[in-house]
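Q: For a teaching handout, I want to show students what a protein-ligand complex looks like in token form. Below are the inputs, and the small molecule is heme C. Please produce the holo structure.
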Amino acid sequence: MAFLASVFAFAAGHKGAAAAQQSAPAASAPSKSAGAASGDPARGKSLFEQNCSSCHGVDATGGEGPDLHGVPASLGDEAVVNIIKHGIRGTAMPMFFDLSDKEAADIIAFLRSFDASATAGTVKGDPKAGKALYESSGCSACHMIEGQGGSVGPELTRIGAMRGPTSLEDRLIDPGANLPQNGTGFYSSKWTEYLMFRAVEKNGHVIEGMRVGEDSFVIVLKDGSGKFHALWRPDLRSLAQEPGKSLMPSFKSALSPAQMDDLVAYLMTLKGAQ
Ligand code: HEC
Ligand code: HEC
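A: Here is the structure, written as tokens, with heme C included.
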């Protein structure tokens, strides 16, 4: 059945996109140097508020996207201009092709106004204690770090480079409330990953799982044991999204606030291969 093969190819392609994330940022031809020295930090601040703060936080300390303090200094202004204009392929970092070089320089000037050392203060916990908690809490049954662990949830090898600490804590407390959005660099092609669906077959059999692929005729769900189900839509009695649901349990009551800080501090050390 050709359509199923194509759905699986799609699902596999989607996984491939996630793997390609590792090679981010997208290495396109470097754009002409924006010369942050010429940027206007006040204009940069308002451009940042309009375009970036929803993901990186108003003060650029991170949220859905990473902390950006010290980033122009470590990556270089040209690389940051390139990321702003082209996005990071396979991640939620969109491209801003409508921002001019001057506007990108203004944003960089704003980011350079922060002292990179201020970043360290945003993570309170002890990463060593956090690593022990990670190991004793069953996280690796569902998550992979550097090739070790399960694949029900997203790989965490680079999670500290992808998110800010508050957003990680939110996700441990209330999984499913804020599902990771992945895209190809365009707002329009965003895809909510791990969105849960409940399908009821004509014979009454219920399948619950995360959507990993779909087209007009077929939806592919992955259940809590990691098993894939390709379901032919016309054969289903019902199919419903379950927004806010996740296969991940909440760790709100399992961990004390101090343990939560430790675990987040550990996750923030996971930055992948340098
Ligand atoms: C829709 C959410 C979103 C918006 C809006 C957004 N970003 Fe991002 N950004 C991300 C995510 C997620 C990453 C991490 C991608 C990865 O490496 O997996 C990121 C990464 C980056 C990086 C790379 C950081 C590093 O250390 O490698 C820079 C620089 C950056 N963003 C700047 C910006 C700027 C400037 C804006 C506004 C013009 C912006 N972003 C808007 C989500 C966003
Ligand atoms: C039963 C499987 C399961 C267990 C156990 C589990 N998770 Fe998850 N986790 C998931 C799934 C599925 C998602 C994606 C959906 C969501 O965000 O709710 C997820 C999402 C996450 C995210 C958000 C990833 C992102 O891209 O922002 C983090 C961080 C995380 N888990 C960390 C942990 C930690 C730390 C533990 C142990 C304390 C843990 N998880 C235990 C299944 C699990």
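A: Two things your students might notice: The radius of gyration is 20 Å. The domain at 127-182+248-268 is CATH 1.10.760.10 (Cytochrome Bc1 Complex; Chain D, domain 2).
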